[in-house]
Amino acid sequence: DIVLTQSPALAVSLGQRATISCRASQSVSTSSYNLMHWYQQKPGEQPKLLIYDASNLASGIPVRFSGSGSGTDFTLTINPVQADDIATYYCQQSRELPPTFGSGTKLEIK
Amino acid sequence: QVQLKESGPVLVQASETLSLTCTVSGFSLTNYGVIWVRQPPGKGLEWMGIIWRNGNTDYNSALKSRLSINRDTSKSQVFLKMNSLQTDDTAIYYCTRVRINYGSYYFDYWGQGVMVTVSS
C-alpha cells in the first residue's frame, strides 16, 4: 500500500499562510495526472473535498485554498488563514488501490 | 442535489454482524461508485471498500474476509455487511460518492456518517 505521511499539527496566525505537506512512499503521478487529493474535516463534521488531482479546486471552495506538487511531494496552501479554517486536513492518493489517506494535519491558530 | 445518508444500528454486540445502508439521491449508482470509509474516535480515515459503477467491488485487504458491499440500483442503496465485530470496529462509518475524472478518482460527496459502537 502507498503510505502518505503528514505532520500531525500546524499552528499559524490568522491572516498568515499555512502550508500543509503530504509525502507519498512512492510516486502517485502518471504522465497525465497527479493523483493526490485533499479533504477538510471540521470537528463533528464529515470530510469535504477541497482539491482534486493535486491542484484543482473543488466546487464551492474559496480561492484562498490551493494545491501543488507532483511525484511524491504535495502541498496544500491556505492563504490567508481564517478562523473558519480550523480543521484537520487529509491527503489521499488514487494512484493505486487501496486509496490510502494520510494521518491528517490539524490546523491550529497561534 | 447530491446526497448520501447512512443508516443502521448505533450499537452492536461483539462477534455480531454490522449491516449499514447508504441511501443516495441526486445521482445514479450506475454512473457513480460508492466507497465506505470509517473513522475510529479521535483517529484518521480508513478506506473499507468500494463498489464501482459497474458493480465490481474492491476491499481493504485487512477487512476482506469479514466485509461485503453490494447494492440495489433500483432503490439507490448501497449495503455494507461486516461480520465478527470487535470493539476496535467502533467508529463513524461514512459512505461517499466516487467521482471518476478520466484517469483519476476521488470522493466528492460524503454522507454525514453513522457512529457505530461495538459493545463487549
Please, could you describe this protein's structure?
The complex is a heterodimer of chains A (110) and B (120). Chain A contains no helices and ten strands. Chain A has 110 residues and is mainly beta. In chain A, the strands form two sheets. Chain A has a six-stranded mixed sheet with strand order 2-10-9-4-5-6, with no helix packed on it. Chain A has a four-stranded antiparallel sheet with strand order 1-3-8-7, with no helix packed on it. Chain A starts with a strand and ends with a strand. By secondary structure, chain B is mainly β. Helices cover 0% and strands 57% of the residues of chain B. Chain B has strands spanning 3-7, 11-13, 18-25, 33-39, 46-51, 57-59, 67-72, 77-82, 91-101, 104-110, 114-119. In chain B, strands 2, 4, 5, 6, 9, 10 and 11 form a seven-stranded mixed sheet that branches. In chain B, strand 5 and strand 6 form a beta hairpin. The radius of gyration of chain B is 14 Å and the shape is globular. The A-B interface holds A 30, 32-33, 35, 37, 39, 46-49, 52-53, 58, 90, 92, 94, 97-104 and B 35, 44-47, 50, 58, 60-61, 94, 96, 99, 101-113.
